[in-house]
Write a structure and sequence with these properties.
about 240 residues; 8 helices; single chain; globular; mainly alpha
């Protein structure tokens, strides 16, 4: 029954993706969509983390399935739209999450003292979060330097933010994206812990499952397009 449900949900995501593709949303999706998904992540993610793993199973199944389907569909569409903007833009968004995760891991191991969410993910610390944010800002500085000096297929997320929001505004936006990556990571850990599962699937043995590889990307890619749209709007104004 569980496998059949997973296949059915995968089919729903595929149909929704095909509908978005047919509607032209991959090339030009409305900015309101990205903002709506980002707000949904902030509200639902914050609430889930506040109540903890024990309360998650009490949420009605249809609501949990619906949230999961929306998160997966929106992340796929956002990634496809980012690719349509340009490879440089898409890679800059992906690398933001990866750099924040890597810097958080090493920063947490070296400096970690204060636990971030002990009941959800005991290994994470506030020092790891700050380290991840610092790593992301250093990456942004390096990437904007490369954008200005090399011929790339288009601007990166960082260059778009700096151009439209200035350095301070871009830094604030990037820190917010890093915070969302932590929310995505913790929510996925919360769902696994509530289900009593160590891995989200068996497709990637030793890696915690597929969702462990994309958990932080689920909220960040749509949110990156949201803040990029704000930057582009201000730049056009």
């Amino acid at each position: 029954a569980g496998d059949a449900l997973a296949l059915a949900m995968g089919a729903v995501v595929a149909v929704a993706g095909a509908a978005a593709l047919g509607g032209g949303w991959v090339a030009q999706a409305p900015a309101a969509l990205w903002w709506g998904v980002s707000v949904l992540w902030l509200l639902c993610g914050s609430l889930a983390l506040r109540v903890g793993p024990t309360a998650w199973p009490q949420v009605p199944h249809p609501a949990r399935w619906g949230l999961g389907l929306v998160a997966l569909w929106a992340a796929w569409l956002a990634l496809a739209h980012a690719r349509a903007i340009g490879i440089n833009f898409m890679l800059s968004v992906l690398c933001l999450v990866w750099m924040a995760d890597i810097a958080a891991y090493f920063g947490g191991r070296t400096f970690g003292r204060r636990k971030l969410a002990l009941s959800i993910s005991p290994g994470k610390s506030w020092e790891g979060v700050w380290s991840g944010m610092a790593g992301a800002l250093l990456l942004a500085l390096s990437w904007t330097w490369i954008d200005a000096r090399f011929d790339v297929d288009g601007p990166s997320l960082y260059s778009i933010l700096v151009r439209g929001l200035g350095w301070i505004g871009a830094a604030v936006a990037l820190l917010a994206l890093c915070a969302l990556s932590v929310v995505g990571d913790l929510v996925e850990s919360l769902v696994k812990r509530a289900a009593g599962a160590k891995d989200s699937s068996r497709l990637l043995p030793g890696h915690g499952g597929v969702l462990d590889r994309v958990d932080a990307l689920l909220p960040v890619v749509p949110a990156a397009l949201a803040v990029a749209s704000l930057s582009l709007a201000r730049g056009a104004g």
